Amino acid sequence: FMEKRTSRDHLYNRKVCLKNLSAETELTWKQRFEICIGLIKGLHYLYIGLGGEIFYRDVKSTNILLDEHYMAKVVDFDLSQLGMLNLDHINMGLNGSFGYFDPEYFRTL
């Protein structure tokens, strides 16, 4: 559980029936930028900081939780792949959530 719920709750300006989020939840552009930077730092740590051992393959707004200071936390590692940077051992099949795929991803299949 995170105090500010998911980034989706804020990006789509949904009213959330919790004591901390009972009013409008629209993010400022500065907050959005800082959330993106936090997400990038988290993904960078998973991919580079751990020696290239975790490939997170399901980035979407519901998998980005926000703490009380709107710091991004990456969750849901079900589709993640463990492995070293040797791409011969990485499952590169179609994975992720439909609607969040990079259009160029389909062209490489």
Describe the structure.
The model has no long low-confidence stretch (mean pLDDT 72). The chain has a single domain, classed as Transferase(Phosphotransferase), domain 1. It has 109 residues and is α+β, with helices and mostly antiparallel strands. Strand 2 (64-66) and strand 3 form a beta hairpin. The protein has helices spanning 7-11, 29-49, 103-107, and strands at 54-55, 64-66, 72-74, 81-82. The strands form two sheets. A two-stranded antiparallel ribbon has the order 1-4. Residues 1-109 form the Protein kinase domain. GO terms for molecular function: ATP binding; protein serine/threonine kinase activity. It is a single-pass type I membrane protein. This is non-specific serine/threonine protein kinase.
Tally of helical segments: 3
CATH architecture call: Orthogonal Bundle
Shape by Cα distribution: globular
SS-based structural class? alpha+beta
Which stretches are poorly predicted, pLDDT < 50 over at least 5 residues? none
What is the highest CATH level, the class?
A: Mainly Alpha
Strand-residue fraction?
Answer: 5-15%
| Share of helical residues | 25-40%
In total, the number of domains comes to 1
Q: Residue-averaged pLDDT, rounded?
A: 72
Head-to-tail CA distance between termini: 37 Å
- According to CATH, the fold-level topology is Transferase(Phosphotransferase), domain 1
The description of the largest β-sheet is: 2 strands, antiparallel
Strand order of the largest sheet: 1-4
Relevant CATH superfamily: Transferase(Phosphotransferase) domain 1
Rounded to an integer, what's the Rg over CA atoms?
A: 16 Å
EC number: 2.7.11.1
Subcellular location: Membrane
GO cellular component, one term: membrane
Protein name: non-specific serine/threonine protein kinase
